[in-house]
Design brief:
Residues 102-262 form the Glyceraldehyde 3-phosphate dehydrogenase NAD(P) binding domain. The protein is built from 12 helices and 20 strands. The chain has helices at residues 3-26, 42-50, 57-68, 79-85, 88-94, 111-120, 144-153, 214-221, 262-277, 322-329, 364-375, 428-458, and strands at residues 28-32, 35-36, 75-78, 102-107, 130-137, 165-168, 173-176, 179-185, 202-206, 226-231, 239-240, 256-258, 280-290, 316-318, 337-344, 350-358, 384-387, 404-407, 412-414, 417-424. The strands form 3 sheets. It has a 9-stranded mixed beta sheet, with helices on both faces. Strand 19 and strand 20 form a beta hairpin. The radius of gyration is 22 Å and the shape is globular. The N and C termini lie far apart (62 Å).
């Protein structure tokens, strides 16, 4: 090891407690080029800063110390901008006036629900302005709460959760890293009065997929305590949002919003970059997708015909609406893309094959360089990953926080015909996208509330 490495290590170790206090005490998430700096891992921070050797960590340390002694709170701070401007005072003027947190309700606690909880409550991770307040599930026996805690803690795909999870039958709560989360048992939204649990103006995330249209999801809004709803599936009669692409389309009046599908989130950011740079005439999206819980493990009756065949033994042809859903985020691609899917015997991580006819002739090098550059921007670093690993296989992308990762060594081009391969963790990568959207909705609500408070005080 060189002295430079040891010096960097020393600086990063000094950053850990400061980042932790900023998150815990001031609700500040610090990000570098869109990547959150978490306070739980020296190795993770070393990996991030290794990508930006030009950054002076001594200056980073001083800026974060200034931030810690300031009145800034309840916000996300872009470290790169702060280093350039070196103006903590300006940030103070823009920060929220209180540490109010919007309560979050997870309606359903399956694969996505548990990963959302893991992400929101991860040690070292901060979600400014919101906290997990409740989980709503159907009761599955006398030991339901204990089983929920176990499923959160231990996961066959994503490993053991690096956190402390406790269950309290008497209080009907799960305590996750010291945060008590109420577990509410109900079979339908109409059965729950959230205000009776002290929950008001909450953001509810529906992970069940039982209702996918505006009318069905409106049942949540009719319950006391719920202010907005996010659907973790493609939705009808509502905006389908892919964070990083069309998230700025969300308005305060949008009370029900879809976070689209995992596949739509994986391919849309890359398609948006290609559409802007080269133009897309037409294309086909084939997703080779990990099998999911809606398939049968052994041959049996199923409303989806082929999905009734044994998932772990077959490649199963099926349908996907992901390609058509792209146009909801990129209107210029309306009617230009078709799509289909093959479910395969892996439990997680999928790959989308994008076969595109571009408006311009390009080269492999040009496309790869374009997308590598996009993956390093603050705007798309959370959405587009870039892999140049010769030995890459699907399991390497388990736990990837990006919506999709380009396998650059597989890119094929012939004139204006391009074929791209995009890996994505269809569980965790998608969950990270949902959390990003939740953060935006919460900050949007708090910003309006802050302005209203200022106006009333001035009056």
């Amino acid at each position: 090891m060189t002295n430079t490495w040891l010096q960097t290590l020393s600086h990063v170790e000094s950053l850990i407690p400061i980042l932790g206090k900023l998150g815990r005490e001031q609700e500040i998430k610090v990000a570098l080029a869109g990547q959150p700096l978490m306070s739980d891992s020296v190795t993770a921070l070393m990996t991030i800063f290794d990508q930006y050797p030009e950054i002076d960590l001594t200056k980073v340390l001083q800026v974060l110390m200034d931030l810690q002694s300031s009145l800034v709170q309840n916000t996300t701070v872009d470290l790169e901008s702060l280093l350039v401007e070196n103006d903590v005072e300006a940030l103070i003027a823009q920060s929220a006036s209180s540490l109010k947190q919007v309560p979050v309700v997870l309606y359903g606690f399956g694969r996505i629900g548990r990963l959302l909880a893991r992400r929101m409550c991860a040690l070292g991770h901060t979600t400014p302005g919101m906290k997990l307040a409740a989980i709503v599930v159907r009761k599955a026996g006398d030991k339901d709460l204990k089983k929920r805690a176990s499923l959160l803690k231990f996961d066959s795909v994503h490993g053991t959760y690096d956190g402390v999870v406790k269950s309290d039958e008497e209080e009907s709560t799960l305590t996750i890293n010291g945060q008590a989360v109420k577990v509410i048992y109900a079979s339908h939204p109409s059965e729950v009065d959230y205000e009776s649990y002290g929950i008001r103006d909450a953001l509810l995330v529906d992970n069940t997929g039982m209702w996918r249209d505006h009318d069905g999801l409106s049942a949540h809004l009719q319950r006391p305590g719920i202010d907005r709803v996010v659907l973790t599936a493609p939705g009808k009669q509502m905006k389908n949002i892919v964070f990083g692409v069309n998230h700025n389309d969300v308005e305060l009046d949008d009370r029900i919003i879809s976070a689209a599908s995992c596949t739509t989130n994986a391919i849309t950011p890359i398609l948006s970059v290609l559409e802007e740079q080269y133009g897309i005439e037409s294309g086909h999206v084939e997703t080779v997708h990990a099998y999911t819980n809606d398939q049968n493990l052994i041959d049996n009756v199923h409303k989806g015909d082929r999905r009734g065949r044994a998932a772990a033994l077959n490649m199963v042809m099926t349908e996907t609406g992901a390609a058509k859903a792209v146009s909801k985020a990129i209107p210029s691609l309306e009617g230009k893309l078709s799509g289909s899917a093959i479910r395969v015997p892996v439990i997680n991580v999928s790959i989308a094959v994008l076969s595109l006819r571009l408006e311009k002739e390009v080269t492999v090098e040009q496309i790869n360089a374009l997308l590598e550059s996009a993956s390093q921007t603050a705007e798309l670093s959370g959405q587009i990953g870039f892999s140049a690993e010769a030995d890459a296989v699907s399991s390497d992308f388990i736990g990837s926080p990006q919506a999709g990762v380009l396998d650059s060594l597989s890119t094929k081009v012939r004139g204006n015909q391009a074929t791209l391969y995009v890996w994505y963790d269809n569980e965790f990568g998608y969950s990270c996208q949902v959390v990003r959207l939740m953060e935006q909705l919460v900050q949007q609500s708090l910003a309006v509330e802050s302005k209203e408070t200022e106006s009333s005080v001035a009056a």
